[in-house]
Structures are given as structure tokens and as C-alpha cells.
Amino acid sequence: MNELTGTRSFFDQPQVQVQQIAVGKGVPLGIEVVSNPLVGIGGAYGTWGEGIDNEHLPALIEQLIGQPLEQHTKMNLSELGFLYRHHLQGLSPAEQIELELEVGTRFLQAATQACGWQPAEVEGVLIGMTAPATTDFCERIAERAGIPAKAIKVSVHKACDSSVGGLQLALNPDEALAERLGQDLAGRLYGKKVLVGGIEGLSRFMQEARDTHALQLFGNGAGVFGMIPGETMKFLVGVTHEVYDEEGVLAVRMAYPHSRQRAAGQSMIEVSQAGENHIRVAGLMHEPDNEWPVVMAGPMGMVKLFVRTGVQVLQEAYTAYQRRMAELGRFDKSIALAVVHHANYKINKLLEKNLIKEGIHIPMPWVLSEFGNVSAASNMIAFLRKLTSLKPGDHVLFDSFGAGTYYDALAVELGG
Predict the structure, then answer these.
(1) Within a domain: residue 3?
(2) What CA–CA distance (Å, rounded) separates 250 from 264?
(3) Containing domain of residue 110, as a range?
(4) How far apart are the C-alpha atoms of 295 and 287, rounded to whole Å?
(5) Contact 157, 256 (CB under 8 A)
(6) Which helix (DSSP H) or strand (DSSP E) does residue 389 occupy?
(7) How many CA atoms lie within 13 A of 209 on its CB side?
(8) CATH number at residue 212
(9) Between β-strands 335-340 and 395-402, what pairing exists: parallel, antiparallel or unpaired?
(10) From CA 85, how far away is CA 66, in angstroms rounded?
């Protein structure tokens, strides 16, 4: 088998627990629970809806757009690393909300159990979402999962960068948003039991889309893991970067509160108190001119948008990592694994190729072939899929990028 793993549908894999959610005519949900007691981290990942392979995807898209899919718009999805993705149709808006609340609840519960924790012990929940089903999604799933109301909830909306953005907030005491948060969030969460993840109901978001590239790439997915900042996951270095996508190469409709204002020289990210213990971190997007949820350029447009700056961010993070290791006198250490956003296989291989040109050799495996592009869920799923192979003391580099445009990269050391 080559690097593009996943010859079978996710639901057909033996380690996946398949459940039915009683919404509409019933919606299948597949969850895989992963735990590594040696490093003290566990979590759960998966997807929901009908699994659709590349062969049958055009028929679904033609049904959605009401016309044949033109030959020149059909993408070579296997070449881009995707064999399946999960969608669902026919639910009312109220049913969609109930479905995603139940999905989110089950992932929080499964991740909590994977860590050997009780819900009442959880003190922080940070969830990244491109387009939340409700603006209080994080609060509601935490409550349903039995997590105390006093626990800190953080909703992060920076498209595909959202979940790693949340991880950065949880771990990095020098994160650029720290001052505007009005609190030392990383300090508050240090030593606490924290859940971090990405939950993306992109099938709902794409129901009104007519962009055929987006319809071929995106699908549902979620990944949530539990860690204790400073113990099971220790912060080493972190880099954040943002630059407005003036041309709207990847335009996304914001489904969350944002003033839509952008002042020169200031961050595009707005921080607000969404509830007593709920913080919202919302990134400005270049929105489509029409009412579609997303409009994107072709694969080459995505390469131009993300690769050049992405390489610069990774170089900066890697240089900071080397400097940190030198300060600590730990010249024997290196990055054991890079967990990179699975936008598509070609983007990731081009990132890797350009880094090698700069003398940076980091393992960047592709592991999400059964999901499609699941936006903020992809880094979390990728990490959980490699979790059992990691050891105490291993250094892991998380790298993510998303529409807006936003970038987060951070290196951590796993504890035990």
C-alpha cells in the first residue's frame, strides 16, 4: 500500500465503532477511540453521514447543483489524496442543529473516556469550527457531555486553521491574542484537563454551494483529544501569521459573529466574550460576492495561496525550535512528526519539497484519505492516527493554514 492510506471506507474498518443517531431517518456515525497511556493522551475521531467514493461523487454533486458536472471541472481526487468523503442530505435546519449537537457531544464524551477522565474533571474545551451549526455550539455540547459550566469554553473560527489555533491558545503563553483575551488563558489551563479538537459539519455548510471544486473536496469529520498542558503536552515554540486574502482565492461565508471590519495594520481576528465562561475567537474572511457558502480557485490557486507563506511560517517555527533546543542544550532532539493540515496531497508534498530545499527534513505523513478535506478536523484526526506510535519525550510539530488567511505552527513535547 502506498502513502495514500485507506482503501476501505472509514465505516468498514474493524476498529471503528458505528452508531446511529436518531435524527431524520437515522444518521450513521463512526468513531475510533485512540489512547496512548505512555504519553497520557487519548482521543476520538471519525465522521458521519453517507460515505461516498470518488466514483459516485459526481452523481451527488449533479443532484445538488441541478445540472451535469462538466468534464473539465472533474478533479483527480485520488491524486489529491482523497478516496472518500461523508455527506448527508434531506434534514431540516432544526434537524441539522440537533444532529451536530449530538455528534459533538459524543466526540467530547469519547475523548474524555479515552483519557480515563470523568466529564466533571474537564476544565477546558477548545473547539475549532469553520461554520458552527449554532453560535453557542461549544457551550451546548460541553453541557450535554456533562462538563461543568465553570469549565472554560473557547470557540475558534479561522477556517481550516481553527483547531491548531485553539491548541496554540491552550499552550502558548506568548500567543499574539493573549492581550486581547484579557486573561492568561494558557496560564489558566496549565496543569488542567483540557479537550482540544475540530468538529466540522461541512456537508451542511456545502448544501447551498455551487462551487464544484469545493463540493468535490470537503466532507464531515471530527477529532478531539485530551491533554494536560505542561504535563502530557509541553509547549516548546509557536508561530502565528495572518494576511488578508485580498483576491478572495478562497472566499468563505462567515457563519459566526464578526464585525467584518478590517483596520490596516491590525489583526483580522476579533475576540469576544460569548458567555460567562465562553470565549469566541473569530477570523475575518473574504466572503463570496454571491450567497454561496464558499467559492474557491482551482488546485493551483490553492497552492499559490498557501504554499509560499506556509513554507515561510514553517521555516520560522523550525528556526525557533532549533534556537530553543540550543538554549536548553538538547542538541540530540529533533521533530519526530509533523502533523500538517490535509488540504490536499499535492500541497503537502510541495510544502515538504520546499522545506527539504531549505535543509529541513521533517516526516509529514498523509493519513486522511477516507475523509476528504475536513478543514479544522484534519490536524486532530492526523495526530490521533499517529498517536499510538509516539513515545514520551517525542517532539511533534503541528502546522495548519486556512482561508482568511491564517497560519499556526507550534512544536510540543509529549509527556508521560
Answers:
(1) no
(2) 21
(3) 10-414
(4) 8
(5) yes
(6) none
(7) 24
(8) 3.40.47.10
(9) parallel
(10) 20
Residues 6+ apart with CB under 8 A from 313: 239, 241, 399, 401, 407, 409
Over the range 373-408, which residues count as b (16 or more CB within 10 Å of their CB) and which as e? bbbbbbbbbbbbbbbeebeeebbbbbbbbbbbbbbb
Give the pLDDT confidence of 320-332 residue by residue, as tens digits: 999 999 999 998 8
How many domains would you assign to the chain?
1
Residue 4 belongs to a domain: no
Q: Is residue 2 part of a domain?
A: no
Cα distance between residue 62 and residue 155, in whole Å: 34
Residue 216 belongs to a domain:
yes
Buried b (16+ CB within 10 A) or exposed e, 75-91: bebeebbbbbbbbbeeb
Name the helix (H) or strand (E) containing 281. Answer: strand 278-283
| Helix orientation angle between 377-386 and 162-171, rounded to the nearest 10 degrees | 70
> Which of the 8 DSSP states describes residue 114?
H
Non-local CB neighbours of 228 within 8 Å, separated by 6+ positions: 40, 191, 192, 193, 194, 415
Whether the Cβ atoms of residue 36 and residue 19 lie closer than 8 Å to each other: no
CA 64 from chain center: how many Å? 25
pLDDT for 8 equals 85
How far is residue 147's CA from residue 163's CA, in Å, rounded to a whole number? 19
Residue 1 CB neighbour total at 10 angstroms: 6
Give CA–CA dist 403/36, Å, rounded.
Answer: 32
**DSSP 3-state of 365:** coil
Q: Residue 197: which H helix or E strand, with range?
A: strand 194-200
pLDDT tens digits for range 189-216? 999 999 999 999 999 999 899 999 999 9
The amino acid present at 191, given as its one-letter code, is G
